[in-house]
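User: For a benchmark we're assembling, each entry needs the component sequences followed by a predicted structure for the full assembly. Here are entry 17's components. Please fill in the structure.
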Amino acid sequence: MAESASILEARDISLQFGGVRALSEVSFQVKNGELFSIIGPNGAGKTSMLNCISGRYRPTAGQVFFKGRDITPLTPNQRAARGLGRTFQNLALFSHMSVLDNIMVGRHHLLRNNFLSGAIYWFGGAQREELEHRRAVEDIIDFLEISHIRKATAGTLPYGLRKRVELARAVAIKPDLILLDEPMAGMNLEEKEDMARYIVDLNEEWGMTVIMIEHDMGVVMDISHRIMVLDFGRKIADGLPGEIMSNEHVKKAYLGEEDDVVGEVA
Amino acid sequence: MAAAAFIPCGQFKTTYAKDTTIFPTPVSRAFAVLALVLLCLVPLVASRYQLNLAIQIGYYGIAALGLNILVGSTGQISLGHAAFFGFGAFTSAYLNNAYGIPVFFAIPLAGLITTAVGLVFGIPAGRIKGLYLAIATFASQFILEDFFARADWFTGGSAGSIASPFGLFGYEFSSDQSYFYVVLAYLVVMFLLGANLLRSRDGRAFVALRDHYLSAEVMGINLTKYRILSFGISSFYAGIGGALFGHYLGYVSAEAFTILLSIQFLGMIIIGGLGSVMGTLMGTAFMVLLPEVMEAGVQNLGGILPGMSDALAFIKQAAIGLAIVLFLIFEPDGLAHRWRMIKAYWKLYPFSY
Ligand SMILES: Nc1ncnc2c1ncn2[C@@H]1O[C@H](COP(=O)(O)OP(=O)(O)OP(=O)(O)O)[C@@H](O)[C@H]1O
Ligand SMILES: [Mg+2]
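Assistant: Structure for entry 17:
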């Protein structure tokens, strides 16, 4: 990676839900072009961290910097327009829309047509613009190998495909940074391998910086450039995959009981 | 017909363009054109009574499409649609009576002014959802009804106000035969605009907002803006429909725009199919024709069961309520869905099993 400037910086993020402290003064940086993973036991605060970055939650304290600017006060849609995309841990597709329309929604902030020019479709340039973006969306569809279901209603698809459509929708935003919350959860081995390949390609070929939450240690160790470990809302380590695996705190807090899994992969 | 020029002209040859047309197959497009041509012939053959029903389907259908964009596509709710319909009717009449603006211009202007009013009443929708929004729109129904009753200068008070006939180049469309074409032109244009809206950026944003508002926001959609915008657009349709209604009857009075009509509008889109453009028209036709069918039935039975005709008004109301309930239970996706199933059947014919 030639560039090493940080695209994202979280500074002392704390998040409180009533008595629950989901995050406590977590700071980290993600470099431009990195594939960065966040791991930790259930309830560690990983999703909460992504929510603070995407704007779903406003941190109780701390700031988020994206491409050098403080985005903490921005709403999620303003952040999307600045090049931030994400997927959800629990599927969040537009279930009555076709796969194609789901992905086209990702182009929202890139499209200029509105209710007026859209309503006179043929005359105000809306048709031309829609078709241009349709072409870009077809590239994404080809890349994620979902062309056979492009007309299907999203809600009728099996789980693994829905996950893929959700990824396609986030890619359609043309994000500089994409946040993936457990993209492989509930998938079989083959689906996981495909998904891992897509993520690596997005990072390497499409030039997207990736922050990924994932429980599958094999995949995480395999494809991540750097890893951060959360436990009870605190950052207990960050570093290269090798460093994380040999870190004593991490072993104790998280990997301890799953030593065999790690061993298997390494 | 000016409206006929709006039928898509097939100069766009890329496959994606074909893929996104309003009428998905050449057959369906041919059918649409044929239907339009046949509709143009209707005034030549239809009785005055039939024309009157067709015109009603036209202006109610336009207003119902607006409500369907708001409720069916955007997933919001409105119990005040009739009030906006009425506002459009009064506004168009007022613009013509007070300022001498020709009806030809007063109708679209009334649509725009009703949009502005709808945007204001839509502001709560930016913040509240579901039952709370239903109550807020219920309130807007009564606020506007109250306004109609008090603003004599605008509505003519309890006497109502006169609405002049539609005119163009000195020709008055005062007969049902001629007014039918005015309503048909508006219907075609408004439905094409609606169908286009729903297949372009902002229409997708509405549906995204309905299906999953949290991820819509993450996709870059400004929730508040689109929730309020949807009210504005729905009011535009209500205003145009109402204005056409006023200039047809020649007279506008507030009794026509009660909560009952608001419920009937909801019935039209539920029966037709929430979120379906063509279904809106089917549902409207159903709602307009159902009471007529009931009436005919009751008159035929009148000889056998005397007293039936006394209960006619009640039977008409009850039939509408019953139809809505039955559709909700047995055909929640509305007539549009049934229609799609029939089409799918014929597509595969004779191999459909
Ligand atoms: N909206 C909320 N309201 C109340 N508590 C919440 C909310 N969201 C998260 N929490 C709490 O914050 C803590 C961290 O949750 P979070 O979802 O971030 O964990 P996670 O690391 O993503 O876990 P998992 O691996 O199970 O997805 C948990 O104790 C959770 O109960
Ligand atoms: Mg989580």
